[in-house]
Amino acid sequence: MHQVTRPSILAVDYGRARIGLALADSQTRLPQPLCTIERLNRNEDMRRLREVVRDHGVKQVLVGLPLRLDGTRGEMAEEAERFAQRVRKQIGVPVEMVDERLTSWEAERLMEEIQGRFIRDEKRTGRKKPKNVRDQMTVDAVAAAVILREYLDRQGPTAGKT
Q1: Nearest Cα to 14, choosing from 43, 31, 37, 30?
Q2: In terms of C-beta density within 10 A (0-12 exposed, 13-18 middle, 19 or more buried), how is residue 49 classed?
Q3: pLDDT for the residue numbered 143
Q4: Residues 6+ apart with CB under 8 A from 63
Q5: pLDDT of residue 127
Q6: Local structure of 120: helix, strand or coil
Q7: How many CB atoms lie within 10 A of CB 116?
Q8: Which of 47, 59, 36 has its CA nearest to residue 145?
Q9: Which residues of the chain have pLDDT under 50?
Q10: What are 27-44's pLDDT values in tens digits?
């Protein structure tokens, strides 16, 4: 197990089949897609999330709130709020809901841009991209990074940010 020196913020892109995770430490404030958890059941999902929180020194969790484009709450928003309440209760760190309208769309656009770069590099150099790059880059994790970036942008500049 590695030592964590700075507290981290974890963003969660909640879904019925998968949960995307992204992380930023409180000083650099640079969001990084972390991983995607395939949903099994509530207890197992919480156990794995608790492990991530512990291993990365997470002091705050952001859960994306999937509002409809007109700002109203649908079934998924209600599910995400219940999930956030479970995280707050069972993991014991502050949890904040963050409006995530359009983050999945933006994540898919970013993924296409990244994939396009790899394809152009393959054509230019003749080298294939490492297989694990595609495995690690999931739309869910990138969407969580977008949620985190937008949250941090709204918080304004800090001493650690230029």
Answers
A1: 37
A2: buried
A3: 80
A4: 11, 12, 14, 80, 81, 83, 84, 87, 95, 96, 97, 98
A5: 55
A6: helix
A7: 10
A8: 36
A9: 4, 129-136, 159-162
A10: 777 888 899 999 999 999
